[in-house]
Every structure is written in C-alpha cells, then in structure tokens.
Amino acid sequence: MKRRALMALVAGLVTAGGAVAGPAGNAVARPAGDGSTAETAVNASGVDDPVEDPGPLSRWIGVGPAGRSTAAPATVVCDGDGTSGKRVQILYVRETSQTDRLAEFQSTFRQWANQIDEAFFVDAQATGGYRRVRWAHDASCVPTVTRVVVPNGTLGGFGNTFNALKSAGYNSTSRKYLAYAETTSWCGLGGGGPGANDSRPGAENRYNSGPELATVGTGCWGWAPSAHELLHTLGAVLPGAPNATIHGHCWDDEDIMCYDDGGIPNPPGQLVKVCPGAPENQLDCNHDDYYNVRPAAGTWLASHWNVANSQYLISTPPAWSVIVDNTSTSFRASANWQVSSYSTQRYGADYGFANPEPISDPAWYSADLPGNGTYKVEVWYPATSGYNDRTPYVVVTSSGNQTVQVNQRTNGGKWVNLGTYPMSAGTHDVVGVSRWTAGTGYVVADAIRLTRVS
In a designed cystine with 206, which of 198, 215, 228, 296 is the match (CB 3.0 to 4.6 A)? Predict the structure, then answer.
C-alpha cells in the first residue's frame, strides 16, 4: 500500500493515545496531555516545537515490535571513549506500571543504530565524503541503550515526556536523545531543543547543541522512523530549502524525509518522484535540501545549514581498517576445506566450509597490523540451518589466543562483532576458524574485518 493511500485510511481514525485525524490523505497526529500543536516549527521562546509525523507510514509498516531481532549486538564506528563530546544517545522509556521490555528489544535497538549509521555513511559517500553518527557507545563500540522509567501518564505527550527525561538527568547540551517510547500516542516526534530553524551554515548553528529529543512510539519502532526523527533534531528539513514543505519535510521523493504532510507548496502540490528508482529511505534526494558533504558553490546548502556539518556526526574515517576475504592471499586453509557460492549472504564470490572434526585444521586469516594497539574484530559469514551452531573463531591477541564461539545459523550476511582485543604490530595470523567443535553442521570461513580503535 502506498503512503498516500495508507494516510487516507489513517485519516479517519483516532488513536488510543489521542491522535486526531486531519483531512483525508493528511492525517496529523497530536499527542495528548501537553497541549502541543501539530507541525509548529518554532515556538515563541525560540525553541523547536516537535515536528510530528503521522503513522504508520507505509514505508515503515512491519518495523514495529513484531520485527524485533535476536541478533548479536550491532557495533558502530568507535569514536574516543564513547561518552565524551557531542553524541546521539539511545534511551528506552516506559512508565512505572508498564512491563519492561528492554531485554527483549535492546539488541534490536542496536541493530537499528547500525542501520541508521550506514544510511548516513552511504549518502555521504554519494557526495564524495565520509560521515558516521557519533553514538554513545561502550568500549566494544556497541551503542549504549539506557532505561528510563517515568511516572504513569507521562507518555501521553511530547512536552511531558521530554520534561521528565530532563528531570531524570537527560538534559545534556552535548546530547541528541533517541528515545524508543512505550506509547501509542505518536508515531514519531523530533524537536524540543535549541535549533529553532536556525539556517546559519557555520559551527555556531544552534542545531549543533542539545538537548533535543527524537522519539518513536511502538507502532513505528524501526530504523527508518528513528532516522527520520533524528534528522529533525539535526536540522532537517529547514524552511527555504529548495524542496521543503511548510511542516519540516520535503516533497521530492525518494527521500526518508519526504511525504505529503499537508504542507507541500503549489506547485507542485503533491509528492514528485524526482529520484525514481532510488532507495525509498535514502538521505536527501539529489542532496540539495539538507545533506551534502560537498555542496557546490552557489547552491542552497553551500550557504545554509547542512546536516552533513553537524558536530554529532563523525567526519573523519577510522585511521586503519582491513577486510580479509577467503579469496585473499592472506587466507589459507588445507585441502579439507571446500569452497561454495551457494548462499547469497556470502561476502565476495564464495566462502570456505568444512565438516566439524576434533582435529587441528583451522582456516587462517593474516594481516599486516600497523602498530601495537586495540583492534575490533568482526566476522562475516552466510547463515543457514545446516551451518554450525558453535563455530570457534580463534583471535590471536598480544596476550595469547582467545576463542569465541559463533552460531552460524543466525545473523548471516552482515558484520558480527567478536569484541575488541590487544594485538601486536606486523604481519601475522590474526583470526582462525577452527573445525574442533561440539556443534553440528558445516563450519564456515568467509571474511573478517579488523579496525584499529586505539
């Protein structure tokens, strides 16, 4: 179902949390309990009122709680100690009497952080640069997710919610908070901070400060709604941008910030697929409204606020990283290891596999490490029910080998973090895949990635 059709359907409804239907095809959600007015960009005090998003939009169907993941915690790019400086911090917010579901969803929230990060990265690359979200994370580069319990009745409105969070200590000027709220009172809301539609292009722009809140209700939990609301807190989409609506969105699809919010100017008077065939949730169709690492001179983003310049993003890539695939000359395995291209989740052309046996016959990856230090170790493998549920990865550290068992029946087709380890400089074996396991099914050796973090 397309967005417009679904929104027309939603327009005839009133949600349990107080969402009020607008004109057909343009449902406008209004949180109850704090008097917030839908789609008001800046209030009289010069603080962002929340930009409110009706939901669920069709691009976000199926990403709510039913889509939770049991995957291992996703990692993000490490930046410093994970806490100091300007960062995006993930919160899980529930009321006192509500069932606590953080244990159930914590891994999922982290996976979504990884997906948000990749979206910022991909569209920075498209404009010739590098950007990552600067998340609050732990020593293993896993995004932190903090539980916040607020009084009953708080989650009926944005203002009440943000005030309760600030009262609980989540009021840092160095934070944009991304809160997964146990509420049906809204789909997504973003704002409440000092940004106030500041379009100045430099570092003094108020969007470079906090606190500011992006929050998603349970009906819209997912990476794309989260990214959408986070982008609001980072300064997208500002009045005056070439394709802006009057309610803080855009009309030039495909774009994660674009939908018919009732404020599309005429012309065009409707959504226009200016970037047909592009990913539906890409950041900034044609990179002319809010996100461009290298905007051309004379363009709007060259002289106005550009989210790509946000101090909440990492602009310098990690100092060193290497990927070693099984097809590399830095990979070796005995003739007992076979090669397959069966799974489409593979990294590169193929991958190695072998039967589990109580013998010393590992497949080894080697690398030339630039110096003594701490390195994040990630592995990539395809996953099927026929692969091993306890594949031993042997990490060669400066203090001895450490073995990490990985279930290769799940989490395939992506980087899986094994942790961070001290390693020694020079060319040597860094990771092995052992056949000696009590698990059943083929053990798989596909690719590894090492990233120096300190």
Answer: 198
Residue 424 has which token pair? 């020694």
* Other Cβ atoms closer than 10 A to 104: 12
Cα–chain center distance at 160: 26
pTM over the 0.85 mark: no
Contact 325, 348 (CB under 8 A): yes
Q: What is the rounded CA–CA span in Å between residue 20 and residue 15?
A: 7
Q: How far apart are alpha carbons 300 and 431 in whole angstroms?
A: 48
Per residue in 118-130, pLDDT (tens digit) is 999 999 999 999 9
Residue with tokens 């949600």: 15
Residue-wise pLDDT for 6-53, tens only, equals 232 222 222 222 222 222 222 223 222 222 222 333 444 455 667 767
- Residues in CB range of 381: below 8 A, 6 or more apart: 345, 347, 351, 387, 391, 406, 408, 412, 416, 444, 445, 446, 447
As a whole number of angstroms, the distance between CA 397 and CA 423 comes to 5
What does the block give as tokens for 370?
A: 């630039």
Q: What letter does residue 262 receive in the DSSP assignment?
A: S
Answer whether 216's CB lies under 8 Å from 73's CB. no
